[in-house]
Write a structure and sequence with these properties.
Blueprint: H1 2-23, E1 54-62, E2 80-88, E3 94-101, E4 106-120, E5 123-136, E6 150-162, E7 167-177, E8 188-201, E9 204-213, E10 223-232, E11 235-242, H2 249-252, E12 266-275
Antiparallel strand pairs: 1-2, 1-12, 2-3, 3-4, 4-5, 5-6, 6-7, 7-8, 8-9, 9-10, 10-11, 11-12
């Protein structure tokens, strides 16, 4: 049954990718943003920055679940998984950057390029490609990880703007190299991310995403994240609830150690700041 489920997931990724690519007509479209931010909660969007601009990020995922209640301040007492990142747009539609998480001291270098801007049935759409390489530089208590700490990933991002600009949706088929660093031999896995955002008021929106992952040992569960985004001049602040405590693509694409139920939900936030130079 496990092999059947894995084959079904792979087929789902291929079908979703083919469907989105066929839906895009390659006619010129106006330069209208679809998602306002360059990321959902974890998944990337097709958005980049104006050439020459920088973007700083700090994000937290609180490890204790909300279920722990007031004694742990609903998880806010920590500990936390933290991520710091910096991105730069060397040209229009291009973004390069690095990000580091204290979880296994995962350090990542990545690049994103928006390759198509098009109409999808009269709605603005875009396709971007993203990929990165990461090293887990301080893995504690995982035998064999020191000899197998490098990971890599590649993603196709397809976004569409609907409902007169009020709703943005997307799919993110992803490939991950070496999802389980404790294994002596590396292998590949695939995941399919889906995400959406409803811009219900100026500067305010609801965000949600779900990542269907292959069943990798110790992280067998899909990742779900829901929350609210507040947009101010140059800032995006997201307050979220999730079963995923990892934020780096080479970690969250493998899956979550916890299932998505009330006992396992955690609080988290993302803050990004645009730095126009």
């Amino acid at each position: 049954m496990t092999h059947i489920a894995e084959r079904s997931r792979r087929a789902l990724v291929r079908a979703a990718t083919a469907t989105m690519l066929m839906a895009f007509s390659y006619s010129p479209a106006e330069g209208q943003r679809i998602f306002h931010s360059n990321q959902s909660a974890n998944l990337p969007t097709t958005e980049t920055l104006r050439a020459g601009n920088w973007l700083f990020e700090i994000s937290h995922r609180f490890v204790p679940p909300i279920e722990n209640g007031v004694d742990a301040l609903w998880g806010l007492d920590g500990p936390v998984n933290n991520r710091l990142g910096m991105a730069w747009a060397p040209a229009e539609n291009t973004l390069v950057g690095f990000q580091r998480s204290n979880f296994q001291d995962n350090l990542e270098l990545y690049a994103k390029r928006r390759v198509v801007q098009a109409d999808v049935g009269g709605n603005p759409g875009a396709i971007a490609l993203m990929g990165g390489i990461a090293w887990n530089t301080d893995v504690i208590g995982i035998q064999g990880a020191d000899d197998n700490e490098m990971q890599a990933y590649a993603q196709l991002i397809a976004n569409v703007l609907l409902a007169d600009g009020a709703v943005a949706v997307g799919v993110v088929p992803s490939w991950l190299y070496n999802p389980r660093i404790r294994d002596a031999e590396s292998f590949n896995s695939v995941a399919l991310g889906v995400h959406g955002q409803w811009y219900f008021a100026d500067g305010k929106s609801l965000v949600g995403e779900w990542i269907f992952s292959e069943q990798v040992t110790d992280v067998e569960n899909d990742s779900g994240t829901f929350g609210i985004e507040i947009e101010t001049r140059g800032h995006f602040f997201k307050l979220i609830v999730t079963n995923q405590t990892s934020m780096q693509p080479t970690q969250y694409l493998a899956g979550s150690a916890s299932s998505f139920d009330t006992d396992n939900l955690r609080l988290g936030f993302n803050v990004t700041r645009l730095l126009p130079f």
